[in-house]
Amino acid sequence: MILRLAVWLILGFLLAPIAIIILFSFHASPALSFPFQGFSLRWYVDLFHNGQLGDALIRSLVIATATALLCLILGATAALAWLRVGPRTRLALELLWLSPIALPGLFIGVSLVVLFAQVGIRLSVLTIIIGHVVIALPVLILTVRARLMLFDPQLEEAARDLGAGQFAVFRRVTLPLLMPTLIAASLLAFAVSFDEFIVTVFVAGTETTLPMYVWSMMRRTVTPLINAVSTLALFFSIVLLCIAWTIGHIRRRTTMAARAST
């Protein structure tokens, strides 16, 4: 009983700031203070009349989509290569993949800026996408790798024994089995890119994403409009995570049903 109470208290302490943000996004008064002066949707209405915010949102969606697609291509290729190498090479690849997660975002941002300056690449949306791929790619690879550890290579061998070529085996055996995991991992990469801020500050140049626009608003003043933006971004991220979890859950049930039938 005491342990359960302690767990609920810790969860309440962690979730209380998020609950306050959501609550004050419906505050009728522009003052972020108690007592609460009634509910209002005026801040959500103001969001749809803010042109700069709309541009930043569209730019963030475009960048996150491009990041998810690039991570899908690179991550799936890297994960499949990891499946076919020896144990020592696997360990080296794992250390390489985990390094962007272990390194601080400040270090990655500064390193990318120096790299772009040396190569002569102007800071733009392209550099933002590159920076987000560096951050999101390890997340996708680790997710796909967890699925590949349960992958049975005998399925590919059986397809080759039946006369299928390398590309046919990949298209008809490997890819269908990994597709739900790839979709779920791509959604996670999309969410990581959509919320990324630290690396974006260094590689954005004159471009502005949604997290950067929210940060610039908070430098001037804190209003319920910021809470409304944060609430919508939180809701959007939760929806993506729920979709990824649902896809993985359906895949697990399908796999268990197939095993039970055999």
SSE layout and pairing:
Elements: H1 2-24, H2 42-47, H3 51-83, H4 87-102, H5 105-119, H6 125-148, H7 154-161, H8 166-195, H9 198-203, H10 210-220, H11 224-261
Describe this structure in words.
It is a single chain. By secondary structure, the protein is mainly α. The chain is built from eleven helices and no strands. The chain has helices at residues 2-24, 42-47, 51-83, 87-102, 105-119, 125-148, 154-161, 166-195, 198-203, 210-220, 224-261. α1 crosses α11 (224-261), α3 (51-83) packs antiparallel against α8 (166-195) and α7 packs antiparallel against α8. It is globular, with a radius of gyration of 22 Å. The two termini are 44 Å apart. The mean pLDDT is 80.
List keywords for this structure.
single chain, about 260 residues, mainly alpha, MetI-like_sf, cell membrane, transmembrane helix, ABC transporter permease, Bact_Polyamine_Transport, 11 helices, globular
Give a brief outline of the structure:
The protein has 262 residues and is mostly helical. The chain has 11 helices and no strands.
Oligomer: single chain
The radius of gyration computed from the alpha-carbon positions, rounded to a whole number of angstroms, is 22 Å
Tally of separate helices: 11
Fraction of residues in β-strands: under 5%
Tell me roughly what share of residues is in helical segments. Answer: over 70%
- Count of β-strands: 0
- Averaged pLDDT: 80
Can you write the helix and strand succession as a string?
HHHHHHHHHHH
Largest sheet: none
For the record, give the distance between the C-alpha atoms at the N and C termini, rounded to a whole number.
Answer: 44 Å
Name the structural class: mainly alpha
Low-pLDDT residue intervals, each spanning 5 or more residues: none
Shape: globular
